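$ ./design --mode recover --in tokens.txt
reading tokens...
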């Protein structure tokens, strides 16, 4: 209809409607009529995009590594991007140029530039293990002024793989396999050595236990001997004390006997002296006088004295007649007395 067209966009597309070089409409998800001869329409997708990449770099030891990853970004300032790249669409709503590929390539170039300087300073083994560091390098490089001038925002960076050449990968696998085998052999050696060491410690502990038991038994024997010696010494001391007590008792008994003997001797001497002193006046006296002093009135006693006096004077007596009755009476009295 005389050059008038209608066009419609979804809500994830930011639209700029230029008329004679001036922006007449702009916004997300627009739907409008336009006059084709003097209109130009720019449509910029606003959703996030996942940009896969893979590039090769050379390490410090002149080995090639392939770095594979993904960058997630979104267009945060479509008007700025429209000033840099061409996102003009035709009447059918399709872009006239594929400048989205230019945008992706610029982002990949910035990522590779940020990575190459880091990879060139490390060797192959370090590069293979440096995924996180490479992510940080790319993330830091994509915050440069060149990226900001494109009006985009980097949402994330992920390194999916870092691979060496097939030949070098096989060499590294062989080296790693040999190293792992060596580590396994070393682990076996360490395990056996540990087992031997543990066995030695167990035997040493058993020997130490036996030595400790022997030492304890020795101490017990010594203690028992000390106890027996002490017991024997105590018994000897008890015997000595008993003997000393017996000796002391015997000495005291001896002293007592000696003292008693001495006392008896002195008493006997005293009694002898008293007796001698008492009898001394009578020693020189005639027995007849002594007999008379007794004042014995027994007739028989007097007859006996008479017989004795006659016996003493027998040479003076001519004849002596003693009647049998007198003797018989004396003898009868003696028998009766018995």
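writing sequence...
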């Amino acid at each position: 209809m005389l050059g008038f067209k209608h066009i419609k966009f979804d809500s994830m597309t930011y639209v700029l409607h230029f008329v004679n070089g001036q922006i007449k409409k702009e916004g997300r998800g627009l739907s409008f009529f336009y006059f084709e001869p003097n209109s130009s329409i720019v449509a910029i997708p606003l959703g996030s995009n996942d940009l896969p990449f893979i590039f090769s770099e050379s390490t410090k030891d002149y080995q090639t590594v392939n770095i594979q990853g993904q960058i997630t970004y979104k267009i945060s300032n479509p008007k700025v991007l429209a000033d840099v790249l061409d996102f003009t669409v035709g009447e059918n709503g399709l872009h006239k140029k594929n400048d989205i590929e230019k945008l992706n390539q610029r982002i990949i170039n910035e990522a590779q530039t940020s990575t190459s300087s880091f990879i060139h300073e490390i060797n192959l083994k370090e590069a293979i293990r440096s995924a996180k560091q490479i992510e940080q390098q790319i993330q830091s490089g994509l915050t440069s002024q060149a990226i900001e001038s494109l009006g985009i925002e980097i949402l994330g960076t992920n390194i999916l793989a870092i691979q060496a050449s097939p030949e070098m990968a096989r060499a590294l696998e062989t080296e790693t396999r040999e190293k792992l085998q060596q580590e396994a052999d070393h682990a076996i050696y360490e395990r056996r050595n540990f087992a031997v060491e543990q066995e030695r410690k167990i035997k040493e502990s058993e020997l130490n236990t036996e030595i400790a038991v022997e030492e304890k038994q020795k101490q017990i024997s010594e203690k028992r001997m000390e106890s027996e010696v002490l017991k024997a010494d105590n018994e000897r001391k008890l015997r000595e004390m008993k003997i000393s007590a017996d000796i002391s008792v015997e000495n005291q008994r001896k002293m007592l006997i000696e003292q008693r003997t001495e006392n008896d001797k002195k008493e006997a001497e005293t009694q002898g002296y008293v007796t001698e002193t008492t009898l001394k006046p009578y020693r020189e006296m005639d027995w007849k006088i002594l007999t008379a002093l007794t004042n014995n009135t027994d007739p028989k006693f007097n007859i006996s004295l008479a017989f004795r006096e006659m016996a003493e004077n027998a040479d003076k007596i001519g004849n002596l007649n003693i009647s049998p009755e007198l003797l018989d009476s004396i003898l009868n009295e003696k028998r009766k007395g018995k």
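exit 0
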